[in-house]
Design goal:
Radius of gyration: 22 Å
Oligomer: single chain
Number of helices: 10
Strand order of the largest sheet: 1-2-9-4-7-10
Distance between the termini: 53 Å
Largest sheet: 6 strands, antiparallel
Number of strands: 10
Strand content: 15-25%
Mean pLDDT: 86
Helix content: 40-55%
Order of helices and strands: EEEEEEEEEHEHHHHHHHHH
Low-confidence stretches: 157-161, 266-276
Structural class: alpha+beta
Length: 276
């Protein structure tokens, strides 16, 4: 934290995302510069003004801004209190290069659903063990960005191969510990990534990443009750590390793995019988 400014950046293990960048600036102004990647920006507090291709734009908190690669732009606070922003730098291949012109013409998108999805993706990226969730969320964001920038011609819906949801569930069960990326699953099942997620959610009432986490937690409960230490359980069930297991376990079960296994937590009791 320097003079009211704060910056954090990291490279997640999520294909398509080159960098995550969070910043709080009160007076800093970016000079004209370019990126070789797509810049996906949301502002959580204050506002940013910037010039893109010699035209002035602004980013109030309810918009999503998409700045295309290789197009010069700058940036500075639009209010006296500065701004707080979250940025995703997306690989050039994440969106069709033919959409650059449309992004130059209309970089600021007023889309509450897109804004919410970008925020959810940032939350998932903050947890190294939530990479599969992040991949799913990124696929839907890219699809929606494409829809904003590319004129759509109504077409007849294509017939989809039956059983793709069941095939994905089988794949997730097989890869419970080592996991699978969304792109890999799409390639193995010959389906578009977003169609995979939609079909699975529609068939089972739960998203693929939620299903995978729930299955891992179910196995973790059994191993804990068998006496395996929580640190070993995390590795044996596919979690990134023990803190990741702890957070996911407490969110679902209401207590930590250690207390669950020891029976010291008064909220912990025998597991209910399955009804199906």
């Amino acid at each position: 934290m320097v003079n009211g400014q704060r910056v954090s950046a990291w490279r997640p293990r999520v294909p398509g995302i080159v960098e995550v960048f969070h910043a709080r600036f009160t007076a800093h102004a970016y000079p004209m510069h370019v990126h070789d990647v797509w810049t996906l920006l949301i502002v959580d507090d204050g506002a940013v003004r910037y010039d893109l291709d010699r035209r002035e734009h602004g980013t109030p908190g309810d918009t999503v801004s998409l700045l295309p690669p290789q197009v010069p732009h700058n940036g500075s606070p639009a209010t006296s209190r500065g701004f707080r922003k979250r940025v995703l730098y997306l690989a050039p291949t994440q969106l069709d290069a033919r959409l650059i012109g449309a992004a130059v013409d209309a970089p600021d998108l007023v889309d509450p659903l897109l804004r919410r999805r970008v925020g959810q993706l940032h939350t998932a990226l903050a947890e190294p063990g939530d990479a599969f969730e992040a991949q799913c969320r990124l696929a839907f964001i890219s699809e929606r960005l494409d829809a904003h920038l590319r004129p759509r011609v109504p077409t007849r819906a294509r017939a989809q191969a039956p059983g793709v949801a069941a095939a994905l569930r089988e794949l997730l069960d097989e890869r419970l510990v080592e996991g699978v990326t969304l792109d890999e699953a799409a390639g193995l099942l010959y389906a578009h990534p977003t169609h995979l997620v939609r079909a699975f959610s529609r068939a089972y009432g739960i998203s693929p990443h939620q299903y995978l986490t729930a299955r891992r937690l179910e196995r973790a409960r059994r191993l804990l009750l068998d006496g395996m230490p929580p640190g070993e359980v995390a590795a044996a069930t596919g979690f990134h590390d023990q803190p990741h297991l702890n957070r996911s376990f407490k969110r679902l079960v209401g207590t930590t793995p250690g207390r669950f296994a020891s029976g010291d937590d008064e909220q912990t009791g025998p597991l209910p019988e399955r009804t199906s």
